[in-house]
Structure formats: C-alpha cells, structure tokens
Amino acid sequence: MSMIHPVILCGGSGTRLWPRSRKTLPKPFLPLVGEQTLFEATLARCADPEIFAAPIVVTGAAHLPHVEAQSTAFPGTSIIVEPEAKNTAPAIALAAARLPEDAVMLVCPSDHYIADIAAFRAAAQAAAALAADDNMVAFGITPTAPETGFGYIKRGDALGAGFAVERFVEKPDLDRAIEFLADGSYSWNGGIFAFRAGALLAELAAHRPDMAATVARAVERGSQNGQQFHPDAAAFGAIEGDSIDYAVMENTSRAAMVPVAMGWSDIGNWNALRDAREADAAGNTVHGPAELVDCSGVLVESDGPRVSAIGLTDVAIVVDGEEVLVTSMLGTQKVGKLGGASNQ
User: Fold this and answer.
1) DSSP per-residue codes, 171-197
2) Model confidence over 86-115: pLDDT tens digits?
3) How many CB atoms lie within 10 A of CB 202?
4) What's the pLDDT tens digit per position in 219-233?
5) How far is residue 37's CA from residue 45's CA, in Å, rounded to a whole number?
6) How many angstroms separate the CA atoms of 283 and 255, rounded?
7) 296-306 pLDDT per residue, tens
8) C-beta of residue 51 within 8 angstroms of C-beta of residue 122
9) What whole-number distance in Å separates Cα of residue 50 and Cα of residue 208?
10) Which domains does the chain show, CATH number per domain?
C-alpha cells in the first residue's frame, strides 16, 4: 500500500479546559497527559516512516508559533495557514487540494488522546485500504460508556476491513445512548477520517459545490512561504463554513467505518482529562503540590499554589496563575460558558 498522508487539524478556542487552556494557548499545545503535548503526541503517532508520509498541519495564524515550535522534531512537516476558521470541511479540502489526487489522507484532530498507538496504526491502515477504493471512511470508536456528548455511527454490512455506514446519529439523550451501548452496533464518531484526496474533492463538489469551487480558487491563488502555504484570504473568506460530517459524510453514498478500541479520549473537559490520566487507588489525579484527605475522583491541577482538600468526591480544582476553578465533575461541561473562559 502507498504511504498514508496525515492531515492534522490544529485549532480550538481553549475554553473547555479553562483556566489551564486559553485562546492563546489551547489544549493541543499543552502536555495534559504525559510529557508530550497533545499536538506532539498526534504527530508522533503518525511518524512511522513505513506507514506515513510527512504530515500536513492545517492551522490558523494565531497558533502558528506553537505549531512551528512543536513540530521541529518531525522533519518535512508542512503547514497550511488558514486565513480564518471555517470549520473542518474547508480545512480538510485545503489539504486535499494540495495533495496528488491518488494520495490517501488520514485526518486527525490534534487535541485527542490515544493510549494504544498500535491499534491506531492498524485502524489507519485498514481505513486507508477502504479509502483507496473511494470510500469516505470514519474511525468508529468502540464506546465504553453511554456518552451524550458524541455523535454515533451505526455500522451496516461488512465492507473490506470495515463496514458500510448505515447511518450517522446526532448526539443522543442518555436513554438513547444507553440503548446504543446495549445494541453493540454503534460507535462514537471521533472525528478521524480517511479519504483519497481526489475522491473527497469530488464528493465535496457534488454536495457543496460552492465550497469546493471556492477552496480550489483559494489554493490556486495562494502563496508558498518556506514550509507554509497561505491560501488566498479573499477567496477563502467567501466560504460558508461547515463540518466534514454535514458537508460530506452524512450525504455521501460511500460512507464506511473502521471500528477501533484504542483508549481514545477527546479530552473534552476536566472530567475527561481526569479519566485519561493515571489515578491513585481512590481515583484521584494530581498535577502540582496538593494534599488530599478522604477524597475520591478528585482532579487537582496547580501551577504553583498548594491545594489542600478534605472529603471531596468527583470535583476538579484547577489553579493557573491568578485564576482558580472549582467545579463538580458534572459541572465540567459548562466551564466554557464562564465569563473568564470566553474572555481569555
């Protein structure tokens, strides 16, 4: 099989892990699980030269300094600098337009955690084989809980090393999520995809012709600056943004999926981060100076001040500079709505 081209999507507003994550330094660029940042870990997963070509990173100008600094250990990395954020479909289409038509691209968010790299790489190769036959392939993450924060994929008939997609399902309520888990044929949609570049652009032209034409124009009029490619700002600014799910995956007749259990987390809030980290016997995770007495399921993250807590269960305590966040794990979904998070 020919090489797989990793396309790393790198953006985010940094609100859901506030105050540790900020607009100026969102979660991809933070070492939240282990020593590497989530972005560095994403590049490292795709660094096997037997399987992967050099990566393409799609990011905005605001994050360019972080991308450049953290990709130095990965030679050959190229960067597409989006003039503005337009959601995932235009970002992926930019990369597709910069690749040969027959190149198989693996689209990876840069802010996810994956514990089992071997399982990830095996799924990438299975997905690439399906994508080479012009299927639009999603990774179907094996669910471990009735999550209501993710979209789901229902698998259909067997197809090569994976399955056809019977349908995509919007984020369910808890009762439906419990049904999906019991059913066994539903997976989480983790936002990882494989496409042949030319096939993706053809699907985009069929379902979002204006977007496809405008992306092509932005690339045609763009400019190269060393490792960076800058699409034409005026052309790109005319694009009506949309996600790859809505623009292509839910419209195509060639949707496929590869199921994978790989210790995946989107690190979508402090609760998810606690669950992704190694915990003590009581389920507590501590980064920074802290003393916990009679606590369970408590996350402490402090960049300096000592945190002391007694008798707490399922609580996150985060200290970053002069900002302090205390929330129940149930409340972590609402952190992005705080005034401090949206203003920083």
Assistant:
1) PP-HHHHHHHHHHS-EEEEEEEEEEEH
2) 999 999 999 999 999 999 999 999 999 999
3) 16
4) 999 999 999 999 999
5) 12
6) 39
7) 999 999 999 99
8) no
9) 35
10) 4-265 (3.90.550.10), 270-343 (no CATH)
